[in-house]
Design a protein that fits this description.
Distance between the termini: 92 Å
Shape: elongated
Radius of gyration: 28 Å
Number of helices: 0
Structural class: mainly beta
Low-confidence stretches: 1-19
Strand content: over 45%
Largest sheet: 20 strands, parallel
Number of strands: 38
Oligomer: single chain
Length: 396
């Protein structure tokens, strides 16, 4: 058998002048090899393990300070697990092939090239995967990049009261799924999810007591869905979808600024919370807002908007430009105000013994303008201090 000689790259030692103990360089070549557990303890440790072949398994643990560790595996069905402790730790795992699995601690870098690979990592981690049906999981302060189809990326903040963490998930391909989850009382955190392809899904959720977090989701392609759920106060949610048949749902109990922008066909956008804005550019869009201080802008054909609300000091604004638009409005409470503009043909607003278009409470005001042909208005107001200004299509 021809002997395969691997060249191990130089490992930069942190504070080399002060290093006192272990240095490891290890290489395996062949089939069915296993290097059980390799462990280094002390200070100033460096390590490098390279494996070439099939069905290899490596377990590498370093414990101490001023560490640097790398594992490279080439082949199929390899497993590499690297866990290090201490200050100044830098770890890296690189795998090429199919069915590989990598597990690392915090502050690590994982690179996998192939299909059906798995990567598990702690916080402050970078994961790069190229191929199909791969899985990546990391904690807070992480960066995940997946290129291929049917990949899954998951971020978990494992501890309570997380602050100022940033997570980036980038997926390019078809059928990918991204999931980000934060525990109780997470504050000032930032989640960025970018998906380029078809049939992608993105989900972000927070537990109670979270505040001032930022969520950004960008989806480019067809049949994408995104959701942001649970409760947090303050902060901002921005969702942008470009493509066809997109769906975006945001459900928050707090007062975050929520923005959904959809450009394409057959989009659906729903916001539940406060301070929401939906912008839809395309055909057959449907927008729904059930909160205060919100607005819906639709430009296209056959758009439908449902504006509901119950509570206190509500404001709503609707703009529809296109054909065959329909609107529903319900407001219940005090100091409500609605401004609705429709430009196009066949627009319909409902109320009076039919769907929506009702204001009930004190200080309500409605300003409605319809320009076009075949517009229908049914409207009701109940309460004190109500005011209505209604304009329908001009006579020619």
């Amino acid at each position: 058998m021809k002997k395969l000689i691997l060249s191990i790259w130089a490992v930069v030692t942190i504070n080399a002048a002060q290093a006192q103990s272990n240095t490891l360089s290890f290489s395996q070549s062949g089939n069915g090899n296993q290097a059980s557990t390799v462990s280094q303890k002390g200070t100033g440790n460096t390590g490098s393990i390279a494996v070439a072949g099939d069905n290899n398994s490596v377990y590498f643990t370093q414990q101490g300070t001023n560490q640097s560790a790398s594992i490279v595996t080439r082949g199929n069905d390899n497993t590499a697990r690297l866990l290090s402790y201490g200050d100044g730790t830098a770890t890296a795992i690189t795998q090429a092939g199919n069915g590989n699995a990598a597990g690392v601690g915090s502050g690590s870098t994982v690179g996998q090239n192939g299909n059906i690979n798995r990567a598990y990592a702690g916080g402050s981690t970078e994961i790069f995967q190229t191929g199909d049906n791969n899985y990546a999981s990391a904690a807070d302060q992480s960066y995940i990049v997946q290129t291929g189809n049917n990949n899954y990326a998951s971020e978990r903040s494992f501890s309570v009261e997380q602050e100022h963490n940033k997570v980036d998930i980038i997926q390019t391909g078809d059928g990918n799924y991204a999931d980000s989850y934060s525990f109780y009382y997470s504050r000032g955190n930032e989640t960025n999810i970018t998906q380029d392809g078809n049939y992608n899904r993105a989900n972000t959720s927070f537990r109670y007591g979270s505040n001032n977090n930022q969520v950004r989701i960008a989806q480019l392609g067809d049949f994408n869905t995104s959701s942001v759920s649970s409760y947090f106060s303050g902060g901002q949610v921005d969702i942008s979808q470009q493509g066809n048949h997109n769906q975006s749902v945001v459900s928050l109990g707090g007062e975050a600024q929520i923005s959904i922008t959809q450009q394409g066909d057959d989009n659906y956008g729903s916001v539940s919370g406060r301070w929401g804005m939906i912008t839809q550019i395309g055909n057959d869009n449907f927008g729904s807002i059930s909160n205060s201080n919100s607005s819906i802008t639709q430009t296209g054909e056959a758009n439908y908007a449902a504006l509901t609300g119950s509570g206190w000091m509500n404001q709503v604004s609707l703009t529809q430009t296109g054909d065959n638009n329909a609107s529903r409005l319900f407001q219940d409470g005090s100091y409500n105000s609605a401004t609705i503009l429709q430009n196009g043909s066949g627009n319909v607003l409902r109320g009076i013994d039919s769907d929506f278009m009702l204001q009930q409470g004190d200080g309500n005001s409605l300003t409605l303008t319809q320009n076009g042909d075949g517009n229908v208005l049914n409207f009701s107001q109940f309460g004190n201090g109500n005011s209505a200004t209604i304009t329908q299509g001009p006579l020619n």
